[in-house]
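Researcher:
Attend to token order:
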Amino acid sequence: MSHFTAAAPGSRTPHPWVWSVLYFPFGLTFGLPSIALGFLASKAGVSVGAISGVVGMSWFPSAFKWTWAPLGDYTLSRKLWYRIAITLVSAGFITMSSLPLSPRTMPLLSFVVLLTCIAGTFIAFATEGLMMHNTPPGGRGRSAGWFQSGNQFGQTAGGGLALWLMTYLPRPWMAGVVLAAVLWGCSLALALVEEPPRHLHHGSPADKLLDAWRQLLAVLRSKAGRIGLILAVLPIGTAAAQGLFGSIAGEWSAGAGTTSLVLGLGGGIAIVAGCAAGGWLAGRLEKPMSYAVSSALGVLACFVIAFSPRTGLGYAASTLFYTFSVGMCAASLTALVLAFIGHTAVATKINLFFALNTLFSLGMLRVDGWAHDSKGTNGMLFTEAGVGVAALIVFAWLSGRVRGTETTSPAPAA
């Protein structure tokens, strides 16, 4: 019977930058709708509430992806799943960039975004399994930082690149073609990593489902898993406001060039710096506490944006600070989960926590969209900050009361 194992000392261990490259396409499935389509749809007269619905469709699959993650864990090879997903996401990007943007086309665009992002989840499953197999235990904190840097860079710099391409290329569909080429370029990094053996390769579908269930239950019975579960469901570190930065840029008189630069290159640099800071913090504090501290910084960032001067410089400085805090949250949450998920059913277990975090982020995104349309931008920011403060208080009250086992992963099923 084969099962996932950690990279052994002396085996070929790739530099963790490969996880940034391989995970970048997954981040781009969020960046294209939120930054590029969000900004251009706003210019086309679409309401922020309607735009938040489209952006929400990019998050929706990630809220439930743990339910189909066993397909990535127990069926085809990780590398084959990655290439299949890249093919489908490329088709989705070309379709998104070809659709005219207006209030009438938002339902169709939402459907295309949904299908594309479902395919994108298999990019995540493949990269997660490859990372856990190719990374020794002592290197997982560093790998988590690089891993989330690729994701967040795709959401920020990738989204900015998509906006620039859709704005300045002769035809919008050309942007989709260029982005598809970028995705296939990222897939070349697969040659640098080792394919892990498939767990329960010869088992029946029932055996595989039962094993995935056993793995999840073991994690949820552990004290570390339960603390992680609490942090995953609390609406902190959601980055919800970031999904609407492209839509509100006009309030700071930020044009397409400024927006693409700030949310693209600038956001990419800020998010990578935040991921590095989050990884550093997770190595020096208890991992749940590092995530709570990172989330508190995000709450502060909401107030900074609200009180920033309504100028291009104010928009840049305040949103980049928020983006930095998002990187810290992403890296510290990843480090928290990698510490206790074990080596089998990796995508299934890790995505339960990521999915729950995304589900509550999706709810916060919808709350932000409603708050903006009814109370304005500052009302949206104060709402997100208030919810975050309440969530941190709940965590402080619950964290000392959690009980559970110390063992998180059962022995692989025979």
